[in-house]
Amino acid sequence: MILTTETLESNKRFERSCYLNLLPLFFIQVAFNPDEASNAVKECIEGVIGGVDYSQNKVNQWTATIVEHSLTQLVKQGKPFKYIVNCAVMQKSGAGLHTANSCYWDTTTDGSCTVRWENRTMYCVVSVFAVAITL
Amino acid sequence: MMPCNTHKTCFSKKRLGHGSQKRAEGQKSRVTTKADSDPKQQWSRTKKTTGFSQTPPNQQAVKTEMETPVPWTSSLTVYPGQSEWQEYQTAPHRRFPREQVHSVMKSIVEARLGEAQYTSSCSAVARELSDSIKEAAKSLSYERYKLISYVAIGQLRDSEVTCSSRGVWCPAADTFTEYTFKNDHLFALCVLFAVYQE
């Protein structure tokens, strides 16, 4: 009888410790990691327009593909964020382009990153905005 | 988000972020009917006991009672769009107004740029524009919406610019507005994303 009660007690303790250990998992809110996101986006850009020259016919398809692939890679990271990816591709012809963004969010959890890429014939600027989902 | 100390409140998911502040401000009251000293209520009660089950006319319910925290073990019915606690509002009460924001963006950009030329100072202009658009959208006071404003100003020359964006979000609550401005020397693309904080 004594043995059975002891084992029951130890089981209870084990369960309780598991229960308490799981608690922090529900409440850790990860901050956005811009380096990881920019690496993923750079790979997507290289994969789509890596060694090609600017082509007016294909540029719409390129921007759509870059954005889709970037989103897929970001979502694959499995973090609790809503993402917005913005891509601008511009032909290199001497014209200038300025982009700016302003955000109203929670700076502890949300973040953004911008990736600038260029080759011989075009510029590509991709901005990623990540807004945390509170669990 | 601050982690809870007691396991009871943790599992009820109550004291999280904004919810904890709202709780401190004033507990939400729930409307219930209470058969107390209200004579009409008593009438219905007495009628019920005698077997007569008609409700009296002009019965006005309503005594509000303050909610007490519900232990996590009890069952809870949450209706879509409503919640006992603010944290469970997965849909906004008011959706972000796209048309209104579009007209606001248009007026801000046209006032700022008008007949402006493209110069190197356009980077500061782009930053100013994105800030002012964001502030204008913020002043509309749509609660629980996070705002992201994006502005691109480019020179009008023999070059093409293609811009596309996509998001992974909740289409019922989140939205965006865009406005494109063009004059003889430059173009400006302004996009405002509004993401609901669930």
UniProtKB/TrEMBL annotation, chain A:
One of its GO terms (biological process) is cell division. One of its GO terms (cellular component) is kinetochore. One of its GO terms (molecular function) is dynein intermediate chain binding. Keywords: Cell cycle, Cell division, Centromere, Chromosome, Cytoplasm, Cytoskeleton, Dynein, Kinetochore, Microtubule, Mitosis, Motor protein, Nitration, Nucleus, Transport. The keyword Transport applies. Coiled coil: none annotated. It is found in: Chromosome, Centromere, Kinetochore; Cytoplasm, Cytoskeleton; Nucleus. Transmembrane segments: none annotated. Its main location: nucleus. Pfam families: Tctex-1. The keyword NAD does not apply. InterPro entries: Tctex-1-like, Tctex-1-like_sf. Belongs to the dynein light chain Tctex-type family. Homodimer. The cytoplasmic dynein 1 complex consists of two catalytic heavy chains (HCs) and a number of non-catalytic subunits presented by intermediate chains (ICs), light intermediate chains (LICs) and light chains (LCs); the composition seems to vary in respect to the IC, LIC and LC composition. The heavy chain homodimer serves as a scaffold for the probable homodimeric assembly of the respective non-catalytic subunits. The ICs and LICs bind directly to the HC dimer and the LCs assemble on the IC dimer. DYNLT1 and DYNLT3 compete for association with dynein IC (DYNC1I1 or DYNC1I2). Acts as one of several non-catalytic accessory components of the cytoplasmic dynein 1 complex that are thought to be involved in linking dynein to cargos and to adapter proteins that regulate dynein function. Cytoplasmic dynein 1 acts as a motor for the intracellular retrograde motility of vesicles and organelles along microtubules. Probably binds BUB3 as part of transport cargo. Required for the efficient progression through mitosis. This is Dynein light chain Tctex-type 1. The gene is dynlt3.
